[in-house]
């Protein structure tokens, strides 16, 4: 991981929901009031983890990351994924990763904005008003994360491997608004997400393709029936 200490955030932030409701001309000064810094990560780096609590808010602005959970025996399962424009760690829930044995792991190069909303802010009243708006936006982002975890529980409630796979693919299709779509996981990651063996997943995908239910090429899928 590397940190950028420049007071200018050299990263795409104009379209972030984090800054929704804040005038474009005020965003740079608000980020300065928060002492915001850009942190950059490579594949496999941990953005937030079970080893320690969260001392700042970390917001993903580039790249993707997996939400990985480990059980008492060290077995891995994937609870979901983050794409850019999502909070991956927050002072509003500082022990979330620790309490739930989670690591947030970069799937490739990515970047975050790190800042603290709990420190005493010395700034103009205008900035303080906008910082309160950021706090509200963070709560909305955390709510979205909880909804993602609930969706996973709905998928896992299905009994058979086929039911789990089809429920997940239908959900992704609905999110994409198309019967052709991409998923953020490779085969092992998808197996970990669905809590099934990779070999069982591969067999079921092959059967479903032979039966004309789906077609796929790597992580690109289509629902064909």
From TrEMBL:
Pfam families: HTH_Crp_2. InterPro entries: cNMP-bd_dom_sf, HTH_CRP, RmlC-like_jellyroll, WH_DNA-bd_sf. One of its GO terms (molecular function) is DNA binding. Gene3D superfamilies: Jelly Rolls. GO terms for biological process: regulation of DNA-templated transcription. Keywords: DNA-binding, Transcription, Transcription regulation. This is Crp/Fnr family transcriptional regulator. It comes from Eggerthella guodeyinii. The lineage of its organism: Bacteria, Bacillati, Actinomycetota, Coriobacteriia, Eggerthellales.
């Amino acid at each position: 991981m590397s940190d950028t200490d420049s007071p200018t955030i050299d990263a795409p932030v104009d379209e972030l929901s984090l800054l929704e409701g804040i005038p474009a001309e005020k965003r740079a000064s608000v980020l300065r009031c928060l002492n915001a810094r850009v942190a950059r990560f490579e594949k496999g780096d941990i953005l937030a983890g079970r080893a320690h609590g969260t001392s700042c808010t970390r917001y993903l602005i580039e790249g993707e990351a997996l939400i990985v959970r480990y059980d008492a025996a060290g077995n891995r399962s994937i609870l979901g994924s983050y794409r850019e424009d999502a909070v991956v760690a927050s002072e509003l829930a500082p022990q979330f990763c620790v309490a739930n044995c989670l690591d947030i792991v970069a799937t490739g190069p990515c970047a975050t904005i790190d800042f603290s909303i709990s420190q005493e802010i010395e700034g103009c009243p205008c900035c303080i008003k906008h910082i309160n708006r950021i706090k509200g936006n963070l709560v909305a982002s955390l709510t979205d994360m909880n909804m993602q975890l609930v969706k996973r529980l709905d998928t896992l409630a299905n009994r058979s491997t086929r039911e789990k796979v089809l429920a997940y693919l239908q959900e992704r299709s609905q999110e994409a608004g198309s019967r052709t779509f991409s998923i953020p996981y490779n085969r092992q990651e998808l197996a970990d997400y669905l809590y099934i063996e990779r070999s069982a997943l591969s067999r079921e995908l092959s059967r479903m393709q032979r039966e004309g239910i789906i077609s796929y090429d790597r992580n690109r899928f289509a629902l064909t029936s």
